[in-house]
Please model this.
Amino acid sequence: MKTLGERIRYARKARGLVQQQVASHLGIARVNITQWEADQTKPEAKRLPELATLLGVTESWLLSRSGEDPQPTKAGKQADKSVSRIIPGQQLISPEKMPVYAAAQGGDGHVIVSFDAVDYVKRPAELESVRGGYGLLVAGDSMVPAFRGGDMALVNPHLPPSREKNVILYHTPPHGGDVEAIIKQLNGWNDREWHLQQWNPFKEFTEFRQEWPICHRVVGRYDAR
Model:
């Protein structure tokens, strides 16, 4: 893997993603990804942070192969099956536990998330072998009936955005400390904006991607106990 294109291709396949998924996440045409991987063109520098996050690598690895190579994951293979639904208890099949984070109600439908785990629970089938998968205790009622306060959203941070799926958008990556987040339905996006929807009260609106750069897919839900 001597070239940037070869490393992009390797990391994409390790994530189990197809070129169209990467292109959709970045809001560009699939041919751009094909050209990058063939070393015919290179991604703009401003796209490297988002591309690296999606592929689960660092910018340094993409540019110079600095650090360990990404290991294959099953996350991509689960993409088509990932829907926001209740997970039966019998599907808790992985002995490895995942962290659960709490959220406090903020203003205008926002929540404040502290990435100090408040609990650890067994992983559901949707998050088996997904490195970095986590649960988030939902605060507020802007997404009722999809989510009620106290429900746990099950999150796969590696899946690309997908239309008409629930997502959590962050102001900053969850690397520690308190960050602001919103959980909404994603209806679409472009280079500049996320097109979002909430249910209570019903509202369709947009947020700037520059202000909310991190998008994590919600793949399931536990009802509040």
